[in-house]
Amino acid sequence: MSAGALEGRVALVTGAAGDLGRGIAAALAARGATVACADVRPTGPVAAALTPGAGVAVALDVTDSRAVDRVLTELVDEHGRLDVLEANLPGNPARPGATTFHLMANPAIDVDGDHATATVMGVLLRREPGDEPGIAVTGHYEDVLVRERGRWRFRRREAFVDVGRPIE
Fold first, then answer.
1. Most buried in the list 69, 103, 110, 161, measured by CB within 10 Å?
2. How far apart are CA 119 and CA 94, in angstroms?
């Protein structure tokens, strides 16, 4: 992917204070994306290390649904779109020591006032201790969203598994 391939695109990377999230944020910014670096830990140094003007630090606890909703709403309100959501999910209670992460991307979220639609492509990757990350599942979501009382909510989400099987 060329240096400007993501010019004008907006990305949200969770877990950006960790090694994996920091690397993904840097790769997206190097290709031209504006990257919101989110984590419960400080992400200011991560955002500052990106291509000048490409990164912004966001304090976010992904277990707090209201905080996630607020951040997503602010990003779409400020930039008019969210093209890439990279969600790092360290740890997996069903597989101790494994790291699971979910890369979600879409060319654009179509916003029409208080309504939006999106087709989100997803890749769920897993890294077992001592192994390289590998693809567990690929698929996509088809979403319809509505903004009610200033908050974006899913009206409908359909999930499709294209390759692989759901993770245990």
1. 103
2. 29
CATH number of 34's domain? 3.40.50
How many structural domains compose the chain? 1
In a domain, 1, yes or no: no
Token pair recorded at residue 45: 């140094």
Whether residue 2 lies inside any domain: the answer is no
DSSP 37-76: EEESS--HHHHHHSSTTSEEEEE--TT-HHHHHHHHHHHH
As separate numbers, helices (DSSP H) first and strands (DSSP E) second, the chain gives: 3, 9
d(CA 98, CA 70): 30
Mean pLDDT of the chain: 76
Measured distance CA(3)–CA(168) in Å, rounded: 37
- Tens of pLDDT, residue by residue over 80-121, are 888 777 766 554 444 555 566 566 665 557 888 899 888 777
Residue from 106, 167, 166 nearest 142 by CA? 106
Rounded Cα distance between 30 and 143, Å, is 29
Q: Which one, of 18, 16, 30, 34, lies nearest residue 83 by Cα? A: 34
